[in-house]
Amino acid sequence: MKQWISAQDGLDSIRLVDAPEPEKLQDGEVLVRIHCVALNFRDTEVCMGHYNHHKTLEQRTPIVPCSDMCGTIEKLGPRNDDCGLKEGDRVMGIFNQTHLKGQITEKDMSSGLGFPLSGVLTRYRVFPAYGLVKVPDYLKDDEAAALPIAAVTAWMAINTFQPLGQPLTGVDKVVLLQGTGGVSISGLQIAKALGLTAIVTSSSDAKLDRARKLGADHTINYKTTPAWQDKVLELTGGKGADVIFETGGAETLEKSFSCVAYGGLISSIGYLSGKEDAPGARINANVLALRRNVTLKGMLNGPKERFEEMLGLYSRKQIHPVVDREFEFGQAKDALKYLVGGLHFGKVVVKVA
Length: 353
Ligand SMILES: NC(=O)c1ccc[n+]([C@@H]2O[C@H](COP(=O)([O-])OP(=O)(O)OC[C@H]3O[C@@H](n4cnc5c(N)ncnc54)[C@H](OP(=O)(O)O)[C@@H]3O)[C@@H](O)[C@H]2O)c1
Hints:
Layout: E1 2-5, E2 15-18, E3 29-38, H1 41-48, E4 68-76, E5 90-93, H2 106-109, E6 124-128, E7 132-134, H3 141-145, H4 147-159, E8 174-178, H5 182-193, E9 197-202, H6 205-213, E10 218-221, H7 228-235, E11 241-246, H8 253-259, E12 260-268, H9 285-291, E13 295-298, H10 304-317, E14 323-328, H11 332-341, E15 347-351
Parallel strand pairs: 8-9, 8-11, 9-10, 11-12, 12-13, 14-15
Antiparallel strand pairs: 1-2, 3-4, 3-6, 3-15, 4-5, 5-7
Helix pairs in contact: 4-5, 7-8
Bound molecules: NADP nicotinamide-adenine-dinucleotide phosphate.
């Protein structure tokens, strides 16, 4: 069968190769025929050899990249009687395959698809049954593939401190979404479905227009309004945002601290470069955190139980993930380059089958 592999030495070097068909299934295993793979920023980092901030994860090359797929169960292995899945079911993989409940652990981090485990940019893959979630009927394959990292991370960015089954609600709760990539646009859809108020920032007026069509209550172009934190305070009557999707990192974090509500939540999603600021150059993050009494919570996706909780809302509200563009399987390299280029709005998908 065909699959893409990366030696983690650049996007141009990823290769489509022949690989052996998966062999006999072991107890609890499931063979999945993959239909669609949605790309994440992480996948481009893995292919470029830049995904190295989780120091304890073993580097393996070459690796099949990508983590987020929708496929159909081709075959169930032995001892799967209670797994709740059957042949023909459409399924998504959970990102960290062993992270089923509660707090993520070091062991769960070692079960990440597309690094350090072999990923999903392949025609077939064997999964443990527990690492799969059924796709709600109303979702198309490409939409379902868009959910495991982007939407689950967005769900957790809003609901990480909420008890399971009691997501955040209320028009008085303001969520600030930075940029219009996969996580932020999922966050926008979830925020609006929960009845929250959403503010979206982007470098592009055209993208902000699309965000408004998806329900964004307020939009700010962070290129033409570099002091967007002041605008957030203005839009919220001085209160600030209750939840901030901190995807920007070093360039955005200080501004986020200036426009978060008292007692608010900055969900640290993207990379926080510049933690060791030069003396006098920038206020240290610890000082910023205590100044407005906020929690800075590092996000590492979320467990299966929260994925399923999220799917409940998706099904009830019939939320369709936003797929910006689809590429053929043989164009996976172009798809990864397109993602790096940042012209997308929402998710980029590779059609495998
Ligand atoms: N911790 C976790 O569990 C987790 C999970 C998923 C993703 N992530 C991380 O979160 C970040 C976003 O992931 P993604 O998959 O959504 O990426 P993506 O789809 O590639 O999003 C890229 C978009 O982010 C926006 N952006 C870029 N620089 C920005 C800046 N300085 N300020 C504000 N927005 C900026 C741009 O939007 P505009 O063109 O609209 O400006 C760009 O199109 C990445 O760093 C990723 O690695 C972490």
